[in-house]
Write a structure and sequence with these properties.
The chain is α/β, with parallel strands linked by helices and 175 residues long. The chain has one domain: P-loop containing nucleotide triphosphate hydrolases (Rossmann fold, 3-Layer(aba) Sandwich). The protein has helices at 15-26, 33-41, 45-68, 86-95, 105-118, 133-148, 162-172, and strands spanning 4-9, 30-32, 75-77, 96-102, 153-156. It has a five-stranded parallel β-sheet, with helices on both faces. The structure holds shikimate-3-phosphate. The site of shikimate-3-phosphate has 10 residues, from loops. Residues 11, 15, 34, 45, 79-81, 125-127 line the site of shikimate-3-phosphate.
Length: 175
């Protein structure tokens, strides 16, 4: 057991912000998988999806996760689709604890659009391309529910700040 904490959950659940707070709180290294993939491939996630498709992107994710899982004590913010691949769940369970952050469809939708406004289009999410984003989020969440439920800890983030979420994770997991 490598003692890592893997923060999972849908886009907009607060994986990066709460993960960063948890890393500060515990004085541990923080790794954001989406940013790492963009750095490694020198491409945005949107461009990776365009060039390699979703299957290619998932392969890169599993490769990166394998690499990350070889190190100890990190707080890892995963991409929203990571737990949908059984091999990824095996890797995470073998090398740490999985936390899944939850929020209502409405809250996710609002956080996602607020974030993409702030990022000026950089926070592009190919999995959410749709005329009706809220409906797309609802559908994907339904498809992914069982995958997310494999986490060791589910945390409701509704009306909680990232710091409150981090404190809750640390307390429940006795970190
Ligand atoms: C994805 C979520 C994104 C990113 C990619 C695919 C997904 O990460 O990894 O666009 O399949 O849900 P966030 O969860 O950080 O938005």
């Amino acid at each position: 057991m490598n003692n890592n904490v893997y923060i999972t959950g849908f886009s907009g659940s607060g994986k990066s912000t709460s993960g960063r707070e948890l890393a500060i709180l515990l004085e541990r290294e923080f790794v954001d998988m989406d940013s790492e993939i963009e750095k490694l491939h020198e491409q945005t996630i949107r461009d990776i999806f365009e060039e390699h498709g979703e299957v290619g992107f998932r392969g890169f994710e599993t490769g990166l996760l394998t690499q990350i899982s070889g190190k100890y004590g990190q707080i890892v913010s995963t991409g929203g689709g990571v737990p949908t691949i059984p091999q990824n769940v095996k890797i995470m369970k073998r090398t740490g604890k999985i936390v899944c952050l939850l929020a209502s469809v409405e809250t996710l939708s609002k956080r996602i659009s607020d974030h993409s406004n702030i990022a000026g289009g950089k926070a592009d999410r190919p999995m959410l391309y749709s005329d009706d984003k809220t409906e797309r989020i609802r559908d994907l969440l339904d498809i992914r529910r069982d995958s997310y439920n494999q986490a060791d800890l589910l945390v409701d983030t509704e009306d909680k700040s990232p710091k409150m979420v981090a404190i809750e994770i640390a307390k429940v997991l006795e970190l």
